[in-house]
Amino acid sequence: MFSGEAIASLLAEVGVTHVITVPDSTIGRWESAMDRAGRPRLVRVCREGEAWQVAAGLYLGGATPLVMIQCTGLFESGDALRNALHDWKLPIFSIIGYRSYLDQAKLPGDTCLVFTEPILDAWKIDYRLITSPSELHVIRDHFIGCRDAGKAGAALIAE
Amino acid sequence: MTGVSPTRSAVSRIPLVGSLETLRRVRRDDEIVITTMGSAREWMTLGERHALDFILVPSAMGHGTSIGLGLALAQPNKRVIVCSGDGSLLMNLGSLASIVAANVPNLAVIVFDNGVYEVTGQQPTAGAAASRVDGRGADFCGIARACGFDSVYAFSDAPGWTNGARRALDANGPTFISLDVEPVAGGTAPHSPGPTSARAQQLMAALRR
After folding, report:
1. Which residues of B touch A54 (CB under 8 A)?
2. Using the beta-carbon criterion (under 8 Å), do A53 and B70 form an inter-chain contact?
């Protein structure tokens, strides 16, 4: 969908300081370019719930973090994001890989297609679905809109 | 560096309140202290709160160490001290590997190991000696070392912690400290000391000063 260079450049442009991530086969391919760019700094964690809470600590400390995970990790991390986004009301933005949206041959009947968007709605996360490489600007515009509104948001990247 | 005993001595364990009083006494003015669950409940009884106290109530299960990692990354010139329970740490053991990977010399994790989920009625954790056929509790210091922590300390009695706390906290981090503490009889879940949004803003303002 996007190159790592394009994502690293976009995130640096909008002021993201740290990307906290557990990779999947799409967003994971962006890591080497982000590492080379050196900005934002990559923070690798073991499980997605950690990512939201590391981001919470970064935000409290004055940084501008972004969580980058797959939708399966979103399912895993409900308690952690509930606490960060809703208990503490921290406006953390995320990029979430949407497994099987474009390629349904690899995992026929993948329930990620059933649950991902309803779960984002349930957690009251304002998201934009990105399905084409021409939509990089949508991520930027949504990030800036959420930042200016002081609310959490997500870009859901079709995979 | 001290090894941790695989079995706990019922007579020598450190009172939780006393262990926190020691931390409060040796804590420096520019150090951030995060407390959770039982440590948060008792910390709030010890006197006026410091601007860099972060009472992590409400919390996500076991994530004090992760919040601490984020704060340590964002504030590299301030030491961050995370007070976690053993039950909480067991819920987020992977965070110890993440902390080492992030290379944060200014982070210290203190695990107050009482072997039980205190606030739910003192049920043994899966890591507690009482849960094990062989009576050997989980070796948190061993886990920390295996994750890559170089500065690892274990204290099983109050005088040892009183005398060694500052030295342990001053070690080149990330630092892992295990305290063998006594469960608090009837210890309940802590109450939130105020609106979360306001408390988050207060901490952020204190860190900007």
Report:
1. 66-67, 69-70, 73, 98
2. yes
Tell me whether residues A83 and B102 touch, CB distance under 8 A: no
CB-nearest to B70 from A46, A57, A89 is: A57
**Considering the domain boundaries, does residue B3 fall inside one?**
no
8 Å CB contact between B56 and B200: no
How far is the C-alpha of A2 from the C-alpha of A75, rounded, in Å?
24
| Cα three-residue angle B97-B103-B104, rounded to 5 degrees | 105
Report if residue B18 sits inside a domain: no
CATH number, position B155: 3.40.50.970
User: B11 to chain A nearest CA, in Å?
Assistant: 36
Give the class (CATH, top level) of A4-154.
alpha beta
Q: Could you give the dihedral angle defined by the CA atoms of residues B25, B95, B54 and B20, in that order, rounded to the nearest 10 degrees? A: -30
Give the ipTM.
Answer: 0.97
Q: Tell whether B14 is covered by a domain.
A: no
Range of the structural domain that residue B78 is part of: 36-208
In the β-sheet with A41-44, what is the strand arrangement from edge to edge?
A41-44, A18-21, A65-70, A93-98, A153-158, A126-130
> Is position B97 within any domain?
yes
Torsion of CA A120, A126, A132, A135, to 10 degrees: -160
- Give chain B positions within 8 Å (CB) of A84: 60
- For residue A45 the two structure tokens come to 């964690």
Per-residue confidence in pLDDT tens, chain A, 159 aa:
899 999 999 999 999 999 999 999 899 999 999 999 999 999 999 999 999 999 999 999 999 999 999 999 999 999 999 999 999 999 999 999 999 999 999 999 999 999 999 999 999 999 999 999 999 999 999 999 999 999 999 999 999
Question: What pTM, to 2 d.p., does this model score?
Answer: 0.95
| Count of domains forming chain B | 1
Q: How near does any CA of chain B get to the CA of A75, in Å?
A: 15
Look up tokens 């988050």; give the residue: B200
Burial of B146 (0-12, 13-18, 19+ CB in 10 A): exposed
Cβ-nearest to B69 among A57, A62, A90 = A57
Please tell me the distance from the alpha carbon of residue B178 to that of residue B4, in angstroms, as a whole number.
Answer: 8
